[in-house]
Specification:
It is a single chain. The chain has about 475 residues and is α/β, with parallel strands linked by helices. It has two domains: about 10-60 and about 320-465, Aspartate Aminotransferase, domain 1; about 65-315, Aspartate Aminotransferase, domain 2 (3-Layer(aba) Sandwich), CATH 3.40.640.10. Helices cover about 40% and strands about 15% of the residues. It is built from 17 helices and 16 strands. It has helices spanning about 5, 30-40, 65-75, 85-95, 110-120, 135-140, 170-180, 205-215, 225-235, 245-255, 280-295, 305-315, 320-340, 360, 370-385, 425-435, 455-460, and strands spanning about 55, 100-105, 125-130, 145-150, 185-190, 220-225, 260-265, 275-280, 355, 385, 390, 395-400, 405, 410-415, 445-450, 460-465. Strands 2-8-7-6-5-3-4 form a seven-stranded mixed sheet, with helices on both faces. α6 links the parallel β3 and β4 (about 145-150). α15 (about 370-385) crosses α16 (about 425-435). The longest helix has 20 residues, at about 320-340. It starts with a helix and ends with a strand.
């Protein structure tokens, strides 16, 4: 028998679920989409969802809940204080985080606002592998400074590609010494590292960061909205963890933190919800006071009982090995397919999204004409695909003369909702990129004609140049 015949053919990647309810999608023409994008000020956030065919804008709150979660919602206890649904959620979260103080919030940025509003302020510094947009905004809103120090790698270094979301430990020590430990409000470890391509963080890197925080008496916050996906990478890529369950890996990692912030709309597998958990009693009291003022009582924090029921179930379901295998592999299927076409993607592919380097894809478009935004708009007009720019629109700033200080890279994120789209949808997206490749000589970008002072990418409006 020949070698080719004896080799086992890799099976088709199939969804580990079946569909019992469908939502119709509207098919539109390119001319229709061009008009709708113009009406939205060329901002994909301002498009109407019914005019989008494949929505990769975000994986936050856009997933499909399971039959068990929907059934659980019928058990929701809507009591104002001490609801049974709260007791279920608190038990699951304490088991996962080993932290005694659990504060529910309506979503992750509410937890950020509460914690960083207390820890931040003028002169304070937060250091992270990479702050995401809402994290940075909540920190800077207090007058504090947010600094990113993700490990830098040679893109051609294929031997050290497993954990490119790690914090740079050498720079961490240097920054603490430079700023003074008394001025460092917290070290924030974002897992997976969203803004750096959805890249995972290793357990070894987390432990080393913890040791540095101990040395200087610093608070370590884990922003773990994708903790399950990160745990999958640790299990399959970090020596010594192959026999561990993804849940036990998550528990080990979260045990290293002083605080845990979660947008439960990601690995919580729900459409709305967030968490803030803490070890320190005094800090928790301050946070509880802010929670009651701005979110709700301590045992619901802006969530309904049925939301808490669904979240308690989702935090268990997300660690199912079959689900996580499909989640990571289906994302990789898209990324590998794009790379095979010659699309410059952030490599290796992360867990929740594929990131495209639009600066390399459109080298003729100057950075101040936002090549990432060009790609985001083109994907919508060509195929009805909505995504988000993660470059100089999202993270760029202006100097004192109004000149753009660009982001490090002009990325576009295709964030894949959980349990929503099939392989056929992914293959459709790959087909649309054939049209994108024909636009590589594009020379015209966009200019911003309106922007708010914070998080401008959500509501800014643009004009084509």
């Amino acid at each position: 028998m020949s070698n080719s015949a004896s080799q086992k053919k890799e099976r088709t990647l199939a969804e580990p679920f079946r569909i019992k309810m469908v939502e119709p999608l509207k098919m539109t023409t390119e001319a229709y989409r061009e008009e709708k994008l113009k009406e939205a000020g060329y901002n994909t956030f301002l498009l109407q969802a019914e005019d989008v065919y494949v929505d990769f804008l975000t994986d936050s709150g856009t997933g499909a809940m399971s039959d068990t979660q929907w059934a659980g919602m019928m058990l929701g206890d809507e009591s104002y204080a001490g609801a049974k649904s709260w007791n279920k959620l608190e038990k699951v979260v304490k088991d996962l985080t080993s932290m005694p103080y659990v504060l529910p919030t309506h979503q992750g940025r509410a937890a950020e606002r509460i914690l960083y509003g207390i820890l931040g302020g003028t002169g304070k510094v937060f250091i992270s592998n990479t702050h995401f947009d809402t994290t940075r905004a909540n920190i800077e809103f207090t007058g504090a400074t947010a600094i990113d120090i993700v490990e830098e790698h040679d893109e051609n270094d294929h031997e050290n590609m497993s954990f490119r979301g790690n914090i740079d430990l050498i720079k961490l020590v240097q920054l603490i010494e430079k700023c003074g430990p008394e001025n460092v409000a917290a070290v924030i470890m974002t897992v997976t590292n969203n803004s750096s391509g959805g890249q995972p963080v290793s357990m070894a890197n987390m432990k080393s960061a913890r040791e540095i925080c101990n040395r200087y008496g610093l608070l370590m916050v884990i922003d773990g909205c994708r903790i399950a996906e990160n745990s999958y990478f640790v299990k399959h890529k970090e020596p010594g963890y192959g026999r561990h369950t993804c849940k036990s890996i998550a528990q080990e990692m979260l045990a290293l933190g002083d605080a845990f912030i979660m947008s439960a709309k990601k690995d919580g597998m729900v459409n709305m919800g967030g968490l803030l958990t803490l070890r320190d009693e005094e800090l928790s009291r301050k946070c509880i006071n802010m929670l009651i003022i701005s979110e709700g009582f301590t045992t619901y924090g802006g969530l309904s009982g049925r939301d808490m029921e669904a979240l308690a179930i989702g935090l268990v379901e997300v660690f199912d090995e079959g689900y996580l295998h499909y989640r990571i592999k289906s994302t990789a299927f898209l990324g590998e397919g794009l790379k095979a076409k010659g699309i410059p993607v952030v490599w290796p592919i992360g867990g929740h999204a594929v990131y495209i380097d639009a600066g390399k894809l459109f080298p003729n478009i100057p950075v101040d004409q936002y090549p990432g935004h060009v790609l985001a708009c083109a994907l919508y007009t060509k195929g009805g695909i909505r995504c988000v720019e993660v470059g100089s629109v999202m993270f760029g700033k202006h100097d004192k003369d109004g000149k753009l200080i660009p982001a490090k890279r002009e990325l576009v994120r295709l964030a894949i909702p959980r349990r929503v789209y099939t392989q056929s949808h992914i293959e459709y997206v790959l087909d649309v990129f054939d049209d994108i490749l024909e636009m590589q000589n594009e020379t015209k970008g966009y200019k911003i004609v309106y922007e708010p002072p914070f998080l401008r990418h959500f509501t800014a409006r643009f004009e084509q140049l």
